[in-house]
## 1
Amino acid sequence: MKKASLIVMLVLGLLQCAPAQHTAAEHRLLADTTRIENMLRTITKTEKSRNYRNTDVLNAVADYLYGALTEYCDTVCFQSYQVNGVEYKNVIGSIGIDKAERIVIGAHYDVAGDQEGADDNASGIAGLLELSRLLSNEKLQHRIDFVAYSLEEPPYFRTESMGSYVHAKMLYDNQINIKGMICLEMIGYYSDAPGSQDYPLGLMRLFYGNKGDYITVIQKSGNGSFGRQTTRLMKQQGFIKTKSLRAPASLVGVDFSDHLNYWKYGYPAVMISNTAFYRNKNYHEITDKMETLDLRRMALVIDEVYETVKGIR
């Protein structure tokens, strides 16, 4: 696609998905920041980094996630698979198992290289676990599958070894009815400093501003009604500044997480993200530690996703 055509499509998407103008600074948190802090500590403060080389650490984290999901889910299981003779595991917890149609909420628990990976992506995993607690007592219209993926990070990104690829393929092969997928990818880092937010295209500052103080609902063009409904409901809550992007998947960053594998199989999917490296310069660095995260704003995002999932029809 030529750059001029990409810019035109992007501007049209921005105009259709203008940022919400309201906030709820006095919103009483439903997500528990103490629980979130404890989960982040357990996931990030391991003796070795939870990367693909350290399978003992990955397995220990997977066991922790299994136990945490067991507390609130109707069923929990490992989805094990082999890569180069080594076993890796997705962890899947489900509620509302009597419902015919599913919503997948997913996040990856591995890291790139030797680092703690607090924002990327312990924050998404903590959100996943807290959502399992919040949603467990709700009467929902859909089955919810909470999926913690292994091997999202390099060297396996964009390969069939990604845990999300394995999971999406399983759904497709078994013709399981999926309403849509919500990917939680880096939801913990925020900044109110001018100039703290970058973009793939400079013109985006005109629509989004230059402060990294918001959460974004990201999806590709032609993502269908699930994406539109998710965006509308997230903005409707107004617990935190919530903005949206519907753009071609070729725009750098739009497909940079596990949701891309659901797109491959024709499932609608959105990514809830703080825009990753466009904001957080600790991305894939040893400085990505839980001490850099804003737990209150992270909890506000979790609350918005919670209310959104309840409202999806």
Note: DSSP finds nine helices and eight strands in the chain.
## 2
Amino acid sequence: MSGKPQEAGRSEATENVFRKVKDHNVKFVEMWFTDILGYHKSFSVTVEELNRAFEEGLGFDGSSVEGFVRIDESDMVAVPDPSTFSIVPWMPLESATAKMTCDIHWPGQQPFEGDPRYVLKRNLKRASDMGFGCYVGPELEYFYFRSNENTGVLDNGGYFDVTPPNVASELRRETVLLLEEMGVGVEYSHHEVAPSQHEIDLRYTDALTMADNVMTYRLAVKQVAIKHGYYATFMPKPLAGVNGSGMHVHISLFKGERNAFFDKDDAYHLSKVGKCFLAGLLRHAAEITAVTSQWVNSYKRLVPGYEAPVYITWARRNRSDLIRIPLYQPGREKSTRVELRSPDPACNPYLTFSVILAAGLEGINKDYPLPEPTEENVFEMKPEEQARRGIKTLPGSLVEAIHLAEESALVREALGDHVFHSFIQNKKIEWDLYRTSVTDYELKRYLPVL
């Protein structure tokens, strides 16, 4: 600190916020949080309210936020996390706007059990009590379209293609620069397989920071697209006949500086901890799918033929499997990880990381045995061969996924009763709205002939 004494009661992180507010001429601060479905929520205060925000939190009506509270218990408090402070670069800079991600509390400072960020913190605490830190690196795919009502693509490129005049690549480049300006690390960005489909991979970090970063990422991608008159969507399957968008999640556990998944003497370079974690993911994959793939549209992506996983298998080289173990590179022990390929980018990252972690920890606690890998293409196997090997499938629809989640003690424990019941109820409503609607497909197929 520049010789100026720290004000009484302020932590170093809080003091750092006030320094940045002064240095950047910040006038407004957006308070960000997330509802149970993963929708981004915020309200804005002036910097004059920051002291009160840190000391007491900021009250708001929680009854209007999906999955939070009933009208008769509506008062909630948003408590900003000073470590998440950054300038919002798409807002006017002459009187700058900053943001902080908040934890949601009851009045009286008790953490609110319906806050997805608290849900993830609770699961990370369980991992910590077992001696583990959890690190995550997701790969989020998305599409650029002409507008939110026009799915006209900006290019017809494919995987890693360069497609002059490269409008979408420029949008992607600007997004990467903006994310780095906000303190979000980026590893790669490239064109994906489908036309106008792109991917920006975030640099792996601890799971809580990463969930915060995913929320920032999705907003930044959309803001840059809107700025240039286009629309970006994380909808899992917006176009028929081409690949949908996934969010492959790379995850590893550490004990201090040591990767707990790595074993130099194992054929797969996987330790006993890594194998049990992987076995836990495989055993509980179907029941956590309602969280990792939470929309009706998610199951239009999880079908054979479009690189999305359907079968509950694992392998090293086979990208059609549910879980892949990226090949070990000598000298990069810290990169040993498992890659779960079923989540999509429209999920709630706090809840998704929670159920993934819970499934893996269950495998460690109960010493689950790891099935043999499946390096062959399961899509080409005959049903008899799949049955002989005991290969099971992910749920094929949202309603099937809901029923599996509803019966899962692991999902209930990972989410906590409040989020579990609210989430299941919301998903049942979504399914009922979908199944009772008359679609364009039905009108085109049946109206002329029935």
Note: Residues 409-435 form the longest helix (27 residues).
